[in-house]
Galactosylgalactosylxylosylprotein 3-beta-glucuronosyltransferase (Leptonychotes weddellii), 246 residues
Amino acid sequence: PLPTIYAITPTYSRPVQKAELTRLANTFRQVAQLHWILVEDAAARSELVSRFLARAGLPSTHLHVPTPRRYKRPGLPRATEQRNAGLAWLRQRHQYQRAQPGVLFFADDDNTYSLELFQEMRTTRKVSVWPVGLVGGRRYERPLVENGKVVGWYTGWRADRPFAIDMAGFAVSLQVILSNPKAVFKRRGSQPGMQESDFLKQITTVEELEPKASNCTKVLVWHTRTEKVNLANEPKYRLDTVKIEV
Ligand code: UDP
Ligand code: MN
């Protein structure tokens, strides 16, 4: 059988949330054997996301965990607790059975994913990597590959990172997640941009990485960001005759 792709998506309430999730679901719906783990950054699961998932037509799991207020500051990494909640769910779900073939991938809700990316990551044996477009102050970042091995990083930002790669640039086999039960994203001591490195060094080495996307020469995922919406003309109290979810 095809290995299941588990996509962990942290998400939070904001005017564009449903639009982002709609676009993401439209992509995921075209991927065979994909399980979407949607983790809300909230004290409870919201009605908006619950209703949305119920109609999304995708195998999914709906989790929530709020980011402590002290971590909601500019310059601090985002969605640490949410990604860990997704990891915990995966480990729990597979604790009694021998790991079914599976691949985990962290899919932020605002990025752009080509369908080819999922074909590439599905053959991940341990940890696979590929280029990411529109990130790090450059058109792309990518792992540098020689003789089929990662030997360094093409990046314009903090080249000292042990794994100079964005969250969207790697996938991990379920087996590796289960055999490293303590591997999580850390708040303590984690500087901006070091989340990926901190996590990856708990489960792999640079030498072990499996380059995808034609030896990391193709961009199949883009770190797009959505513009903040202008709500300057939003009325202070409801003027419309109906209440509409956006
Ligand atoms: N996110 C979240 N809570 C927050 C901010 C972000 O759950 O307070 C989610 C967001 O929905 C996205 C991921 O974390 O899936 C990364 O956030 P963002 O896209 O804002 O980060 P950037 O692209 O700027 O690194
Ligand atoms: Mn983003």
In short: The chain has a mean pLDDT of 96. Residues 108, 110, 225 surround manganese (II) ion (ligand 2) (CB under 6 Å). The first strand starts at residue 4 and ends at 11.
